[in-house]
Amino acid sequence: MTIGETEIESIVKAPIDGYVLNRTVEVGDPVTPSHRSRKDVLMKMANMERLLFKGTVDEIDVGKLTEGMEANIKVGRFP
């Protein structure tokens, strides 16, 4: 970023290791530092190492489940 003749370089560090799910700014876009009253959200991230699935199982199939059994889960994207 350049202000007048002064070039300002900033380093943004993520608070977690993970994957970028959504980026709301592009390189070079102006943002507000976090020490100000208004904070800009740069991106949304998630740690995909340990996911917790909460869902329902049809009562016909629930008798087939056992603790620790492997499962293949297909996840659809929601907005």
What are its keywords?
two-stranded antiparallel ribbon; mainly beta; 79 residues
Describe this structure in words.
The protein is mostly beta strands and 79 residues long. It is built from no helices and four strands. The protein has strands spanning 2-3, 6-7, 19-23, 43-46. The strands form two sheets. The chain has a two-stranded antiparallel ribbon. A two-stranded antiparallel sheet has the order 3-4. The radius of gyration is 21 Å and the shape is rod-shaped. The two termini are 32 Å apart. The model has no long low-confidence stretch (mean pLDDT 80).
Number of strands: 4
The average pLDDT is 80
Uncertain residue segments: none
* End-to-end Cα distance: 32 Å
Summarize the amount of helix as a percent range. Answer: under 10%
- Shape descriptor reads rod-shaped
Q: What characterizes the major β-sheet?
A: 2 strands, antiparallel
Count helical runs: 0
Give the amount of beta strand, in percent: 15-25%
What order do the helices and strands follow? Answer: EEEE
What's the alpha carbon Rg, rounded to whole Å? Answer: 21 Å
Secondary structural class? mainly beta
Strand order within the widest beta sheet: 1-2
